[in-house]
Amino acid sequence: MITFPNIKINLGLSITEKRPDGYHNLETVFYPVALEDALEIRTSPDTDRKFTLYQHGMEIAGKPEDNLVVKAYLLMDKEFHLPPVEIHLYKHIPSGAGLGGGSSDAAFMLKLLNDHYQLGVSEEQLEVYAATLGADCAFFIKNRPTFAEGIGNIFSPVELSLSGYQIMIIKPDVFVSTREAFANIRPHHPEYPVKEVIRRPVTEWKDTLINDFETSVFPQHPIIRDIKEELYHHGAIYASMSGSGSSVFGLFAPESTLPEIDWGTDAFCFTGTL
Ligand SMILES: C[C@](O)(CO)[C@H](O)COP(=O)(O)OP(=O)(O)OC[C@H]1O[C@@H](n2ccc(N)nc2=O)[C@H](O)[C@@H]1O
Ligand SMILES: Nc1ncnc2c1ncn2[C@@H]1O[C@H](COP(=O)(O)OP(=O)(O)OP(=O)(O)O)[C@@H](O)[C@H]1O
């Protein structure tokens, strides 16, 4: 059985408080976008080992057991004593991009195992499992526009459709550690709450829908700021860094022609329609 884990972008991201447990409370809107990995599982004839991971496409650092798809499998195996599996993961989503690629793979693995082995686990319970694998992992279970608060795990649906808008996502050859990005931030409550700005037309988002990580990440990696400015220069209606970086997305009007921009050979670039 095969599935296609997609990315999220953050529409606004306010880091409001540092918590006693070291994590941060935040407010953001997650929006799913169809930039996808491919993830396949097959019951393995090799009963000597529980899982075999075959990786294709972009490389990911770490051992197979560090991969979030394997962690998701082992979590479900503990609960449901699953058969051994072959896992095929084709990585197309760049890592360290703020696009939630690893979290999405993990959440889709939970859903895939639930469907393939007919485990009958509810979406709500899958969200509980997902939340143990990563802060924004649970979002990918329902995978629809969502307002998130808490550490990014308390959800409410938002009435927002960007259907028809065109999107360009660029990730320069820069890796931003999520942990370090949080460590460099001074939490504060936003002047314009994300939940309110998101109700206004996209044309009004430019100076009010803010990703707080830009303040700390841009001075360290000016190339990310340059990309955002370039997107506005070429007609984006709204542009922002996603998550803790390093990718930047631009939204363009539904009827417009996307600009052709040379981002250099080291940058990753995705274009699509929402
Ligand atoms: C920045 C976002 O991309 C916004 O969507 C996410 O909150 C990041 O979520 P994520 O990559 O799933 O993060 P995790 O892998 O769970 O956490 C990485 C590290 O980031 C810090 N972290 C993460 C989430 C959060 N609300 N507060 C934090 O302080 C912690 O130091 C943690 O050890
Ligand atoms: N299946 C996976 N795909 C990508 N990365 C994975 C995976 N499993 C584990 N990782 C590890 O997780 C780290 C973060 O990868 P991820 O693709 O989630 O990027 P991110 O952009 O930091 O996501 P986020 O938006 O959640 O901050 C990588 O450095 C990698 O070592």
TrEMBL record:
GO BP term, pick one:
terpenoid biosynthetic process
Q: Which residues bind ATP?
A: P94, S95, G96, A97, G98, L99, G100, G101, G102, S103, S104
Catalyzed reactions: 4-CDP-2-C-methyl-D-erythritol + ATP = 4-CDP-2-C-methyl-D-erythritol 2-phosphate + ADP + H(+)
Pathway in which the depicted protein is active: Isoprenoid biosynthesis; isopentenyl diphosphate biosynthesis via DXP pathway; isopentenyl diphosphate from 1-deoxy-D-xylulose 5-phosphate: step 3/6
- EC category name: transferase
- UniProt domain GHMP kinase C-terminal: residue ranges: 213-259
| Assigned protein family | Belongs to the GHMP kinase family. IspE subfamily.
**Function field:** Catalyzes the phosphorylation of the position 2 hydroxy group of 4-diphosphocytidyl-2C-methyl-D-erythritol.
Protein's name in the database: 4-diphosphocytidyl-2-C-methyl-D-erythritol kinase
> Which species?
Bacteroides finegoldii
Task: Report the gene name.
Answer: ispE
